[in-house]
Protein: Polyprenyl synthetase family protein
Organism: Dankookia rubra
Amino acid sequence: MDAVTRIERALSAAIGLAEGPGCPPRLAQAMRHAVFPKGARVRPRLCLAVAGACGDDAPVLAEAAAASIELLHCASLVHDDLPCFDDAATRRGRPSVHAAHGEPLAVLAGDALIVLSFQLLARAAQQAPARLGALVTVIGDSVGVPRGIVAGQAWESEPRCDLAQYQREKTGSLFAAATAAGAAAAGADAAVWRLLGDRLGEAYQVADDLRDAVEDEQEMGKPAGQDAAHHRPSAVLQYGLSGAIARLEDLAAEAVAAIPDCPGASALRAVILSETRRLLPRKLSASAA
Amino acid sequence: MDAVTRIERALSAAIGLAEGPGCPPRLAQAMRHAVFPKGARVRPRLCLAVAGACGDDAPVLAEAAAASIELLHCASLVHDDLPCFDDAATRRGRPSVHAAHGEPLAVLAGDALIVLSFQLLARAAQQAPARLGALVTVIGDSVGVPRGIVAGQAWESEPRCDLAQYQREKTGSLFAAATAAGAAAAGADAAVWRLLGDRLGEAYQVADDLRDAVEDEQEMGKPAGQDAAHHRPSAVLQYGLSGAIARLEDLAAEAVAAIPDCPGASALRAVILSETRRLLPRKLSASAA
């Protein structure tokens, strides 16, 4: 079974917990809206790719780790779109969760997705109970304090903010968790796999800043020009357009170089090369060609 | 060391993770504001009391479970107070988190406290790794979907809502988790301990509805009359004042009867009796005397 099928199946099973008897139906609808139809699923594909490179001897746990990371990513988007943050009416080309379901259910859907990410891990860890502690720590630390997504988002409420730290926490942390959790789910040492995810996460954030600067709302599927509009830190504002493109290329090369020795290293290298080539916005890669 | 000291020490250590280097200082302040100075700590005291009755052979894990449950309770209060829910300006006799720190940091502090509750468990479970799965499941299920606090709160967004189910999820679920997690942390069977927490949780919710109906804002430390103002389900609205008092007394008796056989059963019975006697609002116990 290919990675995308494994991921969608694991996410469906997770949302199924909300759609079973007993759950308020509108909350379940808001959660499904946040997770489906699928986004790029970049982080869970990365998680499964690393688990595969490390032997993938507990595939149910690897799938739960991948789904857990995607649920946390979706939760962060739902809360980021709230009126008190970006106040975004659209996401992935359709109404954001709060625009479609109201602000109360958007707050609650985000909360429920965060909790669900840990409920999933605990259930799947029956396959390899000794690995649960590392997985909860790796994934929890990438979302919470002191240096996870939530901490990254909170830098927007501080009078001063370091761009590199902001992006490392807001985006890089969950990429680093994706590679580390893929390794941990397969019983490998999580720590040596963080650098790969860290570099990819920063590359992904720079690419997102580039898209925000050069694409319009229809191309992005969400409001464009948000960084400038909200005076938010952005690689394009900091380095200029060509500087940000050069930074993206450096980060992609560093990611490939960061893959640790393992049985599946060369196959993984090919995956990472293909993923990073897709990061540059089409408009810029066309003009560069 | 007494239970209150153990709980406050564990909560301080948890919030210390947010106050260490690297975390946005205003987020750390908002999280501290949500957790200190102490509330009644009813749920974590219940958790430690059950762990004690079951032998408490992994005290660090029991303290983490107790702190985890209190962090989740605090997170739910922070999010409940948001403008899109109760829009409460005060809590525990002082400004609510969003009133003091703004809405963005209130959303993020709640999110970070939810994640922190699982980070704590994973760290403490090094003392007894085989117990982590049961703890994350018991605690996660009590907060998320399909029947945890978040699901309970989401019933307010449904056209129809069953009062018993609403209160069981919104309050009872975390009480049931407190007793079940206390047992799980001590290596005992969690399932047989749920009924005690379930009965106590419903008693606590009925007492809260009574306070909301008969006390003023100064006595409660938060806005009074919220249930009637928001047309919210409430035991007082459903049963009347004397009916709600009778229901509270029945639930307290059922809680005491639900304590499973264990070495510390009689000591625990005394704790439960003393806790339930304190639930009736002073104004009503004075007029009843």
Summary: The domain at 3-278 of chain B is CATH 1.10.600.10 (Farnesyl Diphosphate Synthase). The mean pLDDT of chain B is 92. Chain B touches chain A through 59 residues (CB under 8 Å).
